[in-house]
Amino acid sequence: TRALTKRFTSSKGLFGRSVSVSAVNDVSLDIRRGETFSIVGESGCGKSTLARLLVRLLPASEGAVLYEGNDISSLSEPEMRRLRKDLQFVFQDPFSSLNPRMTVGALIEEPMKVHTSLSRKERRLKVADLLTKVGLRAAFANRYPHEFSGGQRQRIGIARALASGPKVIVGDEPVSALDVSVQAQVINLLEDLKAEFDLTLVLIAHDLAVIRHMSDRIAVMYLGEIVELAPNDPLYDKPLHPYTQALMRAIPIASPHGRSMDVSLTGDVPSPLAPPSGCRFHPRCPHATSLCGTEKPALAEAADARMVACHHWEKIAENSQGSVREPP
Ligand code: SF4
Ligand code: MG
């Protein structure tokens, strides 16, 4: 294909048949080929729902997800099969997504049976190759998922996701169930594989620390909406939205004095069943004015190819005089 960008747009998801909850509300974004695009927010902000919408694990109620120019909700069966081949999903808990009665080899081979015309022998060779590529031993093919650690199981999940020869991998908090020491290894692995297999990565994360160095662009979600969208460095250097600023201050800072994290983000996330009027962040925002309670700020262009949804971002940026992060 000659398309240089992948365009995903999804809007207004209303989920649940008995209760109507707007988990993802009027979200529009473009994900570009070859980039690492991260979606960050607290639990319940709709980021996992958005991830599932992107790969049609969930149907959108309104709006569209475009993949290479086609709305994925109206694909024919053969087109759908191609979509499944191209767009793979890595789940948060690798164990729950893997059938415990299948060997590791069979699990990784399964998508090849569906999506490729490889012979049995070729598939076996590819399983061995993928296991090595994700940093495991080829002989692990004959063993079962429960014999492995969380980090190893996530590597197996990643090998399985790679088996169909995908173009895009969407990871829903792929490392958040793992020990901190293992998280970095798996993140590094994803970065290496992205380069080797020419992948587009979409990563869902609940804090900004995990994806700190690896994203090209980051979307920050709050209560089903994107409140800020920015390239990696500008976002970390100078977050514009008060919610992003609060998330940034919640990143633990290692210091010789053992200072604990600044818990500036107080209060629970309001229920998506009854989202606050106006700016959805206004009950928790230190900069809220009466305008914020009544009028919803649009996600609008700010400086340097950034987008922010806040009535007062310019004034807030002026007053913060550069980085809002405290020095380590
Ligand atoms: Fe805070 Fe108002 Fe900006 Fe919302 S619009 S983030 S309440 S200042
Ligand atoms: Mg989630």
UniProtKB/TrEMBL annotation:
Belongs to the ABC transporter superfamily. Gene3D superfamilies: P-loop containing nucleotide triphosphate hydrolases. This is Peptide/nickel transport system ATP-binding protein. Residues 1-248 form the ABC transporter domain. The keyword ATP-binding applies. GO terms for cellular component: plasma membrane. The lineage of its organism: Bacteria, Pseudomonadati, Pseudomonadota, Alphaproteobacteria, Hyphomicrobiales. One of its GO terms (biological process) is peptide transport. NCBIfam families: oligo_HPY, PRK11308.1. It is a peripheral membrane protein. Pfam families: ABC_tran, oligo_HPY. InterPro entries: AAA+_ATPase (IPR003593), ABC_transp_ATP-bind (IPR050319), ABC_transporter-like_ATP-bd (IPR003439), ABC_transporter-like_CS (IPR017871), Oligopep_ABC_C (IPR013563), P-loop_NTPase (IPR027417). It comes from Roseibium marinum. Keywords: ATP-binding, Nucleotide-binding, Transport.
